């Protein structure tokens, strides 16, 4: 009789354990599936070079950015931000803006870097390197090309009326705590520098940011307008670039189009 009771207890315990194990396995499967089905998109690599025509260390970084831009035309978003804090030494960079120096300071605060410097290259808003470091830059590009993006941006109805460019956008993926950065970018420009550290040199700058506007998207679809600044010539090749960034300035999505 005692053996029968003990056997019944063992059988009942085995059934309870099996049921628990099955339930736990289902919960883990659901959890794993939720991770697997998290939406990701094609990788984006955004390079933001902080540079100046008044900085003697910057031309090699400008050349490298142009080289990378051409080699990775469909994979890399190369941007050149010209800062104004070198203007005091005798040459006023025509593309420089104090807003770009502030943008650089915001990055360096996030990076816990003590000060701005040129040429500084920020990659996807996540880290920075010296902009003229060729080997390190190519290694970083290779690494970031393997990382899926959190967002995808669609760009449509781009219209150039001579005064500016209007556009419509659609964002895929989470919009929580994110902002859209709309940029007008000149393909390239050569400048004869007459004073300062680069005096008597002709400098070529590529993908120069000449206008920028922040948009707080409340919905996945929206519209925007960027006006052309006076420095933009009518027949110059230019691009419209949209970047999505989170509260820590990390780039989560990007798209670009030629402005005709």
What do these coordinates show?
- It is a single chain.
- This protein is an alpha+beta fold.
- It has one domain: Immunoglobulin-like (Sandwich).
- The chain has helices at 2-36, 59-71, 98-111, 134-144; strands spanning 45-51, 76-82, 120-123, 127-130, 152-160, 164-172, 178-193, 201-215, 221-227, 238-246, 251-259.
- The radius of gyration is 26 Å and the shape is globular.
- A hairpin with a 3-residue loop joins β3 (120-123) and β4.
- The strands form 3 sheets. A 4-stranded mixed beta sheet has the order 2-1-3-4, sandwiched between helices. Strands 8-7-10-11 form a 4-stranded antiparallel beta sheet, covered by helices on one side. Strands 5-6-9 form a 3-stranded antiparallel beta sheet, with no helix packed on it.
- The chain contains 4 helices and 11 strands, in the order αβαβαββαβββββββ.
- InterPro entries: DUF1223, Thioredoxin-like_sf.
- This is DUF1223 domain-containing protein.
- Residues 1-18 form the signal peptide.
- It comes from Ulvibacterium marinum.
- Keywords: Signal.
């Amino acid at each position: 009789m005692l053996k029968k009771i003990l056997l019944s207890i063992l059988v009942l315990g085995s059934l309870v354990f099996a049921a628990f194990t099955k339930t736990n396995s289902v919960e883990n499967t659901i959890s794993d599936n939720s991770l697997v089905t998290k939406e990701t998109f094609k990788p984006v690599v955004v390079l933001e070079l902080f540079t100046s025509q008044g900085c003697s260390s910057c031309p090699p970084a400008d050349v490298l950015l142009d080289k990378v831009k051409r080699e990775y035309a469909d994979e890399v978003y190369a941007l050149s931000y010209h800062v104004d804090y070198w203007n005091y030494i005798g040459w006023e960079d025509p593309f420089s803006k104090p807003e770009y120096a502030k943008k650089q300071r915001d990055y360096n605060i996030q990076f816990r870097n003590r000060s701005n410097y040129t040429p500084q290259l920020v990659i996807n808003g996540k880290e920075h390197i010296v902009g003229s470091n060729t080997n390190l830059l190519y290694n970083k590009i290779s690494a970031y090309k393997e990382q899926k993006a959190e967002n995808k941006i669609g760009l449509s109805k781009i219209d150039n009326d001579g005064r500016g460019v209007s556009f419509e956008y659609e964002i895929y993926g989470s919009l929580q705590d994110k902002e859209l950065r709309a940029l007008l970018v000149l393909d390239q420009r050569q400048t004869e520098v007459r004073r300062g550290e680069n005096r008597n040199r002709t400098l070529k700058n590529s993908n120069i940011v000449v206008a920028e506007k922040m948009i707080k998207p409340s919905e996945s679809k929206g519209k925007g307008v960027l006006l052309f600044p006076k420095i933009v010539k009518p027949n110059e090749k230019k691009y419209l670039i949209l970047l999505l960034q989170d509260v820590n300035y990390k780039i989560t999505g990007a798209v670009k189009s030629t402005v005709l």
